[in-house]
Structures are given as structure tokens and as C-alpha cells.
Amino acid sequence: MSDQSPPPEVVYDPTDPMLRKEQMFPRLSPEMVRRIAAYGKEELVPMGTLLFERGQRGADFFLVLDGLIEIFETDKFGHANVFTIHAARQFSGEMNLFNQRSILASARAACDSKVVRVRSEDFRRMVASEADISEIIMRAFILRRVGLIRQGLGGVVLVGPGHSADTLRLERFLVRNGYPHKLIDTEVDPDADGFVACFQLRSEQLPVVICPERCFLQNPSNAELADELGLTETIDPQHVYDVVVVGAGPAGLASAVYAASEGLSTLVVEGMAPGGQAGTSSKIENYLGFPTGISGQALAGRAQAQAQKFGARLAISRQAASVDCSEQPFRLQLDDGQKVTARAVIVATGARYRKLDVPGYARFEGAGIHYAATAMEGQLCKNEEVVVVGGGNSAGQAAVFLAGIAAHVHVLVRSDGLAATMSDYLVQRIARSASITLHTRSEIIGLEGDERLRQVTWRHRDSGDLTTRPVSNMFVMIGAEPCTEWLKDCLALDNKGFVLTGRCAEGHLLESPFATTKPGIFAVGDVRSGSVKRVASSVGEGSVVVQAVHRFLAPDVG
User: Fold this and answer.
1) How far is CA 531 from CA 179, 241, 500, in A?
2) DSSP 366-395
3) Mapping DSSP to helix (H, G, I), strand (E, B) and coil, where does residue 176 land?
């Protein structure tokens, strides 16, 4: 009888990119190498030659003919940590080669090497022209970004208390924008004391963001963080875009993919991150073509990559503050003062969840009250009771997801049930789950806590019975308010603030059901009055509206 402990169980994770190394770091055929060489120029690079470095925008694409290329990051002491080596017939790069964001790592020749350098503009031309090579590169780049995120390479360190509203805000921004990072949770992480002592931090200074290149940001705003990390692309105020899409939810991203793929110069303006409300869904199971479901963030990430592949540009962490629609081309003012000029505008700003009218509500926003239920929020709920308020699909998806993590999930709705507002498959799962209790005809009346939420009280609307539970995390997903404040002086809105489409000011039918009362401005997705609040319908509207944009831009064609 052996006294040795059994080996730890190996858990298979199909999402781990390291299980797909042959796709992550493919070796191209000699024939593909010859075709790529036609777009670039052969170079001999001596050992130690720096090919590109972290923070650079518009890096070139390198294909190794002979020798080795090292991909590395530099720590705060200036030491290089090599984490990838490309050999003959392999290539450099990841998703930021499709845009003008700052790249995440550096590259150098590990020995005297021969490479093909493909300049940024020629790389885009190659991707558009060589479909089979483009497929291999795109898959590799996506897997590499996932690998960087999972391993925390090429990113930043976020130091702060894990339940703090600002720590959660910054982590949520990094996660939703697919930016690699490591969280040092000062509440539980054993490494936290060393970080705090090393940088001589006080608790009131947290959270902080620390970059490899020695940047040190104390509780930055999302916009400040985006600028420091190079997530925001520079906008040329003199350039006139064919179309500017405002909002990067499913409708906006679909509009961007179809507009850019059909040759329109396209800019997407997004205040937070690609995905919109859908991007916060843990799993969407009724979206066509994904029988096992897909997370909202994964769907948004693929759509963003697709749009950028066709040349669409994204201005992240920037919101439209107003639009001058008195003349054409239209002029949009962003919240950071930048101006964007466009011949046509697609409004896809979607809607945001409404807030509860409960004393102390604002105090706990971000510190126990959430509007998304992703893996990040799920980590805060392990073995605890949670409350989900709302009866729509987003609330149902959140409840089912959290039931696998939390000790128990309480779903509260003011109505008599879920059937009228939620897809049947979610209604049935909630009814069958021993970890979920549905409380109908119920409403939140009390919130208690200290620096974060600790206790929630609700009342049955008919009996008046009160229930108080030790709840530190509540997910609020009730109804929607349109994000249209910036449009009030330009477009006709309905009495709830959603954009009216399909009819002109006199009430006559317009050529497109997505046309607004201002010719050249269109609205799609949840922001449009009368739209179906579903991901699939938003994607459909975003793809179809591009036909109307073409007709507006070239009315005499076709």
C-alpha cells in the first residue's frame, strides 16, 4: 500500500489556448511563405535587433524565414521575460496588428535571422486579399490574445481591495476590453503586503494600476486608463468618415462589420467596451449557430475582431456628447472634446438598466450592486446568497449562471411570474433549480452595509411580509432607459426617449424602417423605438441598415 498522495486531478479546459498550440503558433507552408513575401521585403536582422516594442502603434508583421524571434516583456527592473519564440515559417503579432492601439509586448532577433517585414498598410492589404492565410492569422491572433489574458502577460497589475467599487470598475473595464492584467486583491492576496510596502502605498490611495513601463496610476478614470494603455485610437479631425457608428453593442458591431466590409470608411465610438448590455451576459444560448451557447463578451470580441479585420476603427472609452445635424457632413462632439465628421451616422447606443428607488442605493452601486453577471462578478459570490432583480432574459441568464457559484439565488419580480418576459428555456431552468428561489410580487425596500452591501430586505406587495437576508451582491436588471441624451436637439424621440424611426416628421413612411427624422442618421437595436430587445434582432438591424446608408450616400447608384 503506497503512502504517496494521488496526483492532483487534471481538469480539461476546452477554452485553454495552450491546448491549441499548433493553431496559436502555426508553421506556414512554403507556398504561403512565398505569397506573404510578395507583400513585404526580406531583411537580415543581426542578433539583438529590436523589431518592435511595447507601446508602439502600427507595428509591422514579421515572418521568420531563418533564425528566431523572441517575444518578451520588460519588468520594472529592466529585465526581459521571454515568453514566446517564433522559428522558421512562423509569424509575429496578435490582435493589435488589426488596429492602431499600443501593442502589448516587444520583439527582438534571438540570433542572426532572416525575416520578411510586412508594413502595417501592406499587412491589411494581404489579409484582405489572401483568404486562407487571413484565416490562419486571425485564429492565431485571437488565441494569442486569450493566452496573454489568461497568463497575465503583456498587461498591467491592478492592486486594490477586491470588493471596492473602484477596483471592480477598473477590473471590469480591463476584462471587457480584453486587456491582460493581474489583480492583487489586498483583502485576501498574500502578495498584497509586498506590493503595498514596495510602493509605499496607503489604503486610501488604492486601487492603483502599475504598468511594466513604470506607469503608476492612482485610481484613474476609465478614460485615463484607456489613454495610458493606448486603447484609444487617435482621431483625425480633418477626416470625413463615410459612416460613424455610435455604440458597440451587437447592433453597432454588426453595422461596423457590414459597412467596413462593403468599403465604407467606418469609425465606431464606444463609451465602455464592445458588447453593450449583451457583453455582460454570462451565456447566450438561443443565439443562432451556437448550440452550446456563447458568452456575450466572447461574441462581442469576435465581432470586434471581424470589424477591425475589414478596416473599421474603434474609439473606446469615448462617448458622443452631442451631434450637430444642422448641416452635412454631420459633426459629432465627443466627451473628451474631440470632433468627428461623418457623412452618415448610425445610432446604436442601446439602453441601460434602470435603477431601483431605494434609500442608500447609490451608496452601494459598484460595492455590492451590479448590472452584469460575468465570471468577474461571480468570483465575489462564491458560497454566498445573492439577489437578482428582474424578469427578462438578462436576469434569467444571470440567475442560472450564479446558481452554479453562489450558495443560493433569490430572483425578485414585481409581477406574477416570468413567462411573459423571459424565454421559456430560462423559465424552466429556474423552476427546476434547487439553488434558485423565485419571489413573485416582491420588491426591494431596504439595503444595509458598511463600506459595501451586507444585507437586503424585500417586501411581498400583497401580504406585506418582510424578508431580510445576508446578501452582499445584488444584480439589478430591470427595464431599460435609452442612451439618447446627446440626441434630443436633433432627432424625434418617443415619450420614453427611444429614437423614432421609419416615419418623417409629417408622419409619412420613410424608405428605411431604420431612418430617423433627420436624413442621413439611422437608428438600430435597443435604442430604436419599437425594436425587439434581443441580440439576434439587433445584429439583423445592424446588418440591414447598411443598405439604407449606401442609398443615402449614393442615391443615384442602383
Assistant:
1) 32, 27, 10
2) TTTEES--SHHHHGGGTTSEEEEE--SHHH
3) helix
- The answer to whether the CB of 321 falls within 8 A of the CB of 333 is yes
Q: 442-474 burial by CB neighbour count: b if 16+ within 10 A, else e? A: bbbeebebeebbeebebbeeeeeeeeeeebbbb
Q: What is the pTM of this model?
A: 0.90
Exposure on the CB side of residue 59, measured as CA atoms within 13 A: 24
Quote the percentage of the chain above a pLDDT of 90: 78
- Grid look-up 504517496 returns 4
The number of C-alpha atoms within 13 Å of 392 and in the hemisphere containing its C-beta is 16
Q: Read off the pLDDT of residues 139-167 as tens digits, 9 standing for 90 and up.
A: 999 999 999 999 989 999 999 999 899 99
Closest CA to 230 of 57, 95, 52: 57
Helix (H, G, I), strand (E, B) or coil at 442: strand
Residue 315 region by backbone torsions, left for phi larger than 0, else alpha for psi between -120 and 50, else beta: beta
Cβ atoms of residues 106 and 71 within 8 Å: yes
Burial zone of 31 (CB within 10 Å; 0-12 exposed, 13-18 middle, 19+ buried): exposed
Q: Which residues contact 246 (CB under 8 A, 6 or more apart)?
A: 252, 268, 269, 320, 332, 345, 346, 347, 348, 349
The dihedral through the CA atoms of 372, 377, 383, 384 has a sign that is negative
User: Which pLDDT tens digit goes with each residue over 72-125?
Assistant: 998 777 789 999 999 999 999 999 999 889 999 999 999 999 999 999 999 999
Nearest to 243 by CA among 18, 551, 557, 558: 551
Q: Residue 234 and residue 264: Cα distance in Å, rounded?
A: 19
Contacts of 252 (CB under 8 A, 6+ apart): 245, 246, 268, 270, 276, 346, 348, 349, 350, 524, 525, 542
Angle (CA) 498-285-168 rounded to 5° is 65
- Give me the domains of the chain, ranges plus CATH numbers: 18-120 (2.60.120.10), 156-229 (3.40.30.10), 240-350+500-553 (3.50.50.60), 354-480 (3.50.50.60)
The phi and psi torsions of 473 (rounded to 5 degrees) equal: -140, 120
